[in-house]
Design goal:
The chain is α/β, with parallel strands linked by helices. It has two domains: 7-297, UDP-N-acetylmuramoyl-L-alanine:D-glutamate ligase, CATH 3.40.1190.10; 305-439, Protein-Tyrosine Phosphatase, Chain A (Alpha-Beta Complex). It is 42% helix and 18% strand. The protein is built from 15 helices and 17 strands. The protein has helices at 7-16, 27-35, 54-67, 96-112, 123-138, 175-178, 182-189, 206-219, 262-282, 288-297, 321-334, 352-360, 379-385, 397-407, 420-439; strands spanning 45-49, 72-75, 87-89, 92-93, 143-147, 164-167, 199-201, 223-225, 231-238, 241-247, 252-257, 305-306, 312-316, 339-345, 365-368, 391-393, 412-418. The strands form three sheets. Strands 4-3-2-5-1-6-7-8 form an eight-stranded mixed beta sheet, with helices on both faces. Strand 9 (231-238) and strand 10 form a beta hairpin. The longest helix has 21 residues, at 262-282. It is globular and about 60 Å long.
Length: 440
């Protein structure tokens, strides 16, 4: 088939759907997929939701399955460096050519829906549909790991009936869509629990657990709860990761991960339990050594990612209060003997005050900045929220980073955190700066 679009035009068309905003609900999605032949019904999937930890859980699970010889598709959001990352096979993003083909396949259907009773599909609905078609028709795989976009119950990924559902965590985020109480958010997340499909939970709040318990009982689904039915306890802080003891009724062993933080131990434990259930219910073969190697290899960009071997610089996409709390806990565990500097930027519809208050508890100095993105908080807005005695407003974060690298000492550590969209702009600029620093 001769392609009418080029890659740039294809991506531009997808992004043009952003004007339609977020459109919760499944009617449009079901119609769009029906027009495409219901590709979502022809693949084996695991569905992974939660406020934080989804991406890390996906990458742990993918790496373990790959080590066992399986071909694994992933659908994740947002992308970090390049749009194609959102649809990947064994960690390799969809090619420009295939992505362009997918747009040409879906664009006419989306345009026919413009004046229909369903209305036009949103950007996220289009991308989700593209992934379903890709994994079912173009590049079939053994298993696809689907990360929930927002919430769960009304998210466009929630048309699948997975082999296993996972709810990694529940926290206060996207409250304008999901509600202001932890119980309301838990109700939306619990919407991915399907009839008689096992669900694995890393949720810790009692009131949220109660909601999941009730939903699992209603659906006749086995609920497997971290710290109740299986556990993971840190045994050592490693220079480049964590060592932990994992225990379940069928597996008791010690594993290592290359990502930092106790929350990453929990995410790894959720992924191991998925592997256990896949072995038990789906006759997949994933040995302990596959688990061990997969966990050790797994990395996820923008999550406590060390940017340099010579300077202590980390980027971490802590974009809600729970994410910031996890970052602060890691700082206190590992870096309290250092001079801790933070560069922070966030979207203004986030819970800014609790995020900034958490950061102030661990930072010796904190710099607030902004970047070019819809809904971004201004420097002034962030600065005004903070009461830190050593705070600065940074209009030009690029100049700030150059100056900071020039003066960093052995006892300094810099955390660049907040919006993942901000980090995706920072990383490609920071890497060549660090390369030049190494050459000096």
């Amino acid at each position: 088939m001769k392609q009418l679009l080029n890659y740039e035009a294809a991506v531009e068309w997808i992004h043009s759907r952003l004007r339609l905003g977020i459109k919760p609900g499944l009617m449009r999605m079901n119609h769009l997929l029906k027009e495409l032949g219901n590709p979502h019904q022809r693949q084996k999937t695991v569905h992974i939701g939660g406020t934080n930890g989804k991406g890390s859980t996906v990458t742990y699970l993918r790496n373990m399955l790959q080590e066992a010889g399986y071909t694994v598709g992933t659908f994740t959001s947002p992308y970090f460096e390049r749009f194609n990352e959102r649809i990947s096979i064994n960690g390799t993003p969809v090619s420009d050519e295939d992505l362009t083909f997918l747009v040409e396949k879906i664009k006419p259907v989306a345009e026919r829906m413009e004046n229909s009773e369903w209305g036009p599909p949103s950007e996220f609905e289009v991308i989700t549909a593209m992934s379903f078609y890709y994994f079912a028709e173009m590049k079939p795989v053994d298993l696809v790991l689907y990360e929930v976009g927002l919430g769960g119950r009304l998210d466009s990924t929630n048309v699948i009936t997975p082999l296993i559902s996972v709810i990694a965590s529940i926290g206060m985020d996207h409250m304008q869509f999901l509600g202001n109480r932890i119980e309301d958010i838990a109700y939306e997340k619990a919407g991915i629990i399907k009839d008689k499909v096992p669900v694995i939970s890393g949720v810790h709040q009692p009131e949220a657990r109660k909601v999941l318990d009730e939903k699992a009982l209603e659906m006749g689904s086995q609920l497997v709860q971290l710290d109740k039915d299986f556990s993971a306890k840190r045994t050592a802080l490693l220079d480049k990761g964590e060592r932990f003891e994992y225990q379940s009724p069928l597996l008791h062993d010690v594993f290592e991960i290359s990502m930092i933080g106790n929350h990453q131990i929990n995410n790894a434990a959720l992924a191991i339990m998925v592997v256990e259930l896949l072995e038990k219910t789906c006759e997949m073969k994933i040995g302990v050594e596959n688990i061990r190697r997969g966990l050790k290899k797994a990395t996820w960009p923008g999550r406590m990612e060390a940017m340099s071997d010579t300077l202590d610089i980390y980027i971490d996409g802590a974009h809600n209060p729970e994410g910031v709390a996890a970052l602060v806990k890691t700082i206190k565990e590992r870096f309290l003997h250092k001079n801790v500097a933070v560069l922070f930027s966030a979207l203004h519809d986030k819970e800014l005050k609790p995020m900034i208050n958490h950061l102030e508890d661990a930072a010796d100095s904190i710099a607030f900045t902004t970047f070019d993105f819809p809904r971004v908080a201004s420097v002034e807005e962030l600065y005004a929220v903070s009461s830190h005695p050593n705070k600065i407003a940074v209009d030009d974060w690029k100049a700030y980073l150059k100056d900071k690298l020039a003066i960093m000492q052995d006892d300094d550590v810099l955390f660049i955190t907040g919006s993942l969209y901000f980090l995706s702009e920072v990383k490609p600029l920071l890497l060549p700066l660090l390369e030049n620093y190494r050459k000096k």
